[in-house]
Amino acid sequence: MEAQAQGLLETEPLQGRDEDAIASADFSSMLSEEEKEELKAELVQLEDEITTLRQVLSAKERHLVEIKQKLGMNLMNELKQNFSKSWHDMQTTTAYKKTHETLSHAGQKATAAFSNVGTAISKKFGDMSYSIRHSISMPAMRRK
Q: What residue ranges do the domains of the chain occupy?
């Protein structure tokens, strides 16, 4: 009994064979003639509404294309606008701001480090130049 009750509470989606069983089930025998007529009328009405909605949607899509053409909007312009909006949206995210801040700070540190290395190298070359000039000029001074 418990296994049957548990089967009624299954949370798994329908499998192909389950869908086939439901589709092949004949529920019409459970309906009265009056209910069948009401459902047939409702079916016809829904099909008519769907047809009307498709026609309205198609007309609106044509109108949309006409307006875009009049405004000079084309696919490339729309792509540019979408890209610009996406780029702006991304730049306003917290993750982007934090990453930008971190990389900017790292760039400043790297710039300072390279500057210090450059200064140290320049100083060494200056010292070497002085040392070379001094060693060249000393013998010349002794000869005098």
A: 14-74, 92-144
Is this model's pTM higher than 0.70 or not?
no
Summarize pLDDT for 67-109 with one digit per residue, the tens: 988 888 777 777 888 888 898 888 888 888 888 889 888 888 8
First to last CA, the chain: 123
What token pair was written down for 99? 């990453």
- Looking at 7-107, which runs of residues are DSSP E strands? none
Amino acid letter, residue 97 = K
Q: Which amino acid is at 26?
A: D
Q: If we measure between CA atoms, which residue out of 25, 46, 27 comes closest to residue 36?
A: 27
Q: Which amino acid makes up residue 12?
A: E
8 Å CB contact between 36 and 28 = yes
Using CA atoms, how far apart are residues 108 and 100, in angstroms rounded to an integer? 12
